[in-house]
Amino acid sequence: MPDEAPTVYADESSNSGENLVDPYQPVFAVAAVRLSAVDAQAMVQSVLDAVPPRQGEPKYGSLAKSRQGQAALMSVLPTLGEDAASAFVAHKRFMIISKMVDYLAVELAWAAGHDMYADGSAVGLANLMHLAGPVFGDESAYEAMLATFVNAIRPNQPTTLDDLFDAIEAYRRTTREGLDTHVGRLLAARWHAQDLVDLIDARKIRDVLDPAVPCLIELCRHVGAAIGEFHLVHDSSKTINRHLPLLLSLDQVPAVTPGLPAQALPVVDITFADSSTTPQLIIADWVAGAVRQVGQAWATGTDDDPFVAQLAPLAERWTVGGVWPNKDLITMPRRI
């Protein structure tokens, strides 16, 4: 029986790995496109014909720096509809506090018999901390806490758990009554943090802060819901390659929340290709780059760029989800 599964191509933009505090790359995006080689090559050639020959490989980052490149991109990107392109985006600074909630507060609550994922309080607490943290406590102390967490969790860094919990306590002392209780949840999870670091040091888990894998999983789920199972071709990626066994066996991973078992990814297989010779991956790079640039403008309050204004409607069309702050999701976690 012939294989009728379509092929989808994916690429990332602005992946600094686990360094979520990189000031020059505050937003990450991954995009997927479904185009024939002929159509994708025609789009790539159209852009190449519109820019100087010295352009070289038509990467989004270089094209978006010149007016000619911007105009060339805008001559083809609007032709990509929701059925041809989609993207998932991550606000890295928000992702840091989300990971702190996941690995500290959620684990503490679970040990006390409460599932913060089941009632939405994990997401609620992350949003509360992100939006209120710098306002109802000292902003510099809050930022220091985030940076110390990242450096304490990343392997081969000199930052220790003592440094991390000193930073959490230093921030807690600046917070208003009410918020200090929630910060106290993080402080109370020292043993859980030690368990996490021990697993990282033993190399039993890797890339715990890297947005590439979780964002790709969510993007694949969205694509699969629309077209069913598909072959995935990803631009060369050490992180994705390292986690291939996990990606291809998600249905065998223990459920985070009882009663909500993990589901297999809707992918037949995952292979890698070179974006310089695969036109669909070039288009995926453009989509990811455009979504990342718009997201970065929104995240940093610098959305007055005319090119960003042109890209914004396209980014909204393509973006299917993200790790992004939302004040409407704030909920008060119950007392543990």
Please provide the count of β strands.
6
Task: Characterize the overall form.
Answer: globular
Fraction in helix: 40-55%
Name the helix and strand elements from N-terminus to C-terminus, one letter apiece. Answer: EEHHHEHHHHHHHEHHEHHE
Radius of gyration, in angstroms, nearest whole number: 21 Å
Strand adjacency order, main sheet: 5-4-1-2-3-6
Q: Give the assembly state of these chains.
A: single chain
What characterizes the major β-sheet?
Answer: 6 strands, mixed
Round the mean pLDDT to the nearest integer and report it: 91
CATH-derived topology of the largest domain: Nucleotidyltransferase, domain 5
Tell me the β content: 5-15%
How many separate domains make up the residues?
Answer: 2
By CATH reckoning, the class of the largest domain would read Alpha Beta
Low-confidence stretches: none
Helix count from the secondary structure assignment: 14
CATH architecture of the largest domain: 2-Layer Sandwich
Secondary-structure class: alpha/beta
Terminal Cα span: 56 Å
